[in-house]
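Working notes for the structural subgroup meeting. M.R. asked for a predicted model of this chain before we commit to crystallization trials. I am recording the input and output together here so anyone reviewing the notebook later can reproduce the run.

Input as submitted:
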Amino acid sequence: MKCSKYFCMFFVCFFMFVFILIFPEESFSLFPDEERIILYEDYEAISGSVELYGAVIVSDQERGRSLQLTAETFAEIRPSQALNAKAGTLSFWMKPLWEQESEKSHTFLTLPWADSQKSYMAVSHGWWEPLGSKRLYFILSNQESIHCSAPYGFDLEAWVMITAVWESGDPGYCKLYVNGEKIAENQKTFSGDYVNGGPLYLGTDKGTTSQKGRGAESLLGSLIIFDRPFSSQEVFQFYQTQENDLAAAYDRKWEWLNEGLAVPLVQRRDRQGRLIENRAIFDESMSWAFSKEAADKILSRVKAAGFNIYVPCVWHGRGTYYPSRIASTDPKVASMIPLGYDPLAYLIQKAHSMGIEVHPWFTVVKRESAEYAQFFDEGVPEGAFDIHNIEFRKFIRELILDVVRRYDIDGLNLDYIRAMGVCTSVDCQNNYYRVTGFPLLEDLTQSSVDESARWRLQKWQDLAVTDIVKNLSKQARILKPKLIISIDGQPKAPGGELRALEGRDELAWANYGWIDVIFGMDYRQRIDFENVDAVRSALKQPEKMIVLFGNYDKVDDQSEAVPRTGDLVAKYAAFAQRRWPGTGMGLYIYSKLTDEQVNALRTGPFLENAFPVWKAAN
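Returned structure, recorded in token form:
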């Protein structure tokens, strides 16, 4: 279903409003930094720098003259200036011509680097198959392992602008964008001290040492390369200047939401006729712990919006937000404890009096302090505790069980329940060899191209993280049999994208019954509901999968988060109600919950109070 004229106008206006907030008083020319352009090709005139090998130039109604590529045809461009791996921005338009059911990779451009290792650059939908099938890749250098990717499904009816940005350094980075929105990023130290060693190939993998006859089967529109990296804001602005029809683009962007809202609402009720639906809101701050008045105010707003589950962070890798004999109390809260105030006890008592459940939130592996030095070492992922250190696992398990034992909580939420990377400390290398019989560093290097190496790494990580989940679950339920245990994850359906090598195995944990809920974190504007559906179908109890959507937008880590409109947040909740009746939803995050959002939720999808599903009197 296409959105109405007024609906389209709303979103265009909304987007422009956000745009103005984020980029005030800035203008952007059609081609910024023209003196920094090292290549521009729009196929309007064949200057002699482009050589066609079966590819043809066609006129497209939307993007003008374009390069039409089949699986067997390609083109070459010999830039008049050298491309440098140290820094740059590369952007081009693309429209797929392949069939919907195509399983092949589609390689848009490749380029050889003039370095001693014969490395290459590539932008391709699918690479390192089968592991990398259907992922959109930007590979700056295969030999320096600087690449970023994300699973991506293209709309076969639409043009998209793909942009890749890179900069060397310690750390350096590569970033990948589609239509101005970042979809992947990788930070890694690399030199990039080399230039192109041949032409830029369009529609073929001939510019690489991994030639498998990949083609593009697509239309390629204008291509531009700058010799400097664009910021995320600049990429966003550049897309704005290059998109010919913003209204149509945003119509396509929100089509999934409009169609979801058109589905009739089916509500679940218990035997007493009460509406049952999980409505959770996550609060990552410690504001609730500062005073009774602060807790009262937060809970009042949570209640006013219509939520029935409050998930307050109580441990963020530095100190507890409640009195504890297991770990230090966070310094910002510690001064109140000797006076006899227990913030968590008060919060729970107050929330229960208002009909709100409390599920304390632990960031399990995340570390934000130099304290607990016995639990990390050189080589442990930045900002993490060593998940392979058995003493750490005992510590964090006892820290959480202490809360289960002492407080009248309704549930537990485990965040950062993953290794946060691959530990390469000496202890970890020794541990890996004892467990697998293989050297860790070699397997790590080969893991992107060697399935057996990847499998060993995954199992090693799984063993450590699962040890926490499994044993914590068993012991917690001895203390409180009806305790609801949730985790925050990004589960992948079987047969699709591979799990990250971090030991988080959401589906197995849920199907073994060690956890009750998977909050699927998806803070992007477009919720990946297809993946949610696929994950639910792989669960013995589909209702264990609950989408956790965001209520703010943020261009990049350096930008200020901008709350989404109340209307949009309410639409996300209404979408979840219709797509997954009786399951519910989670909202991230309380600190960006505006009064407008509260009102929109309460007068819209949360008009009627609801009870959490697990409290249904059926």
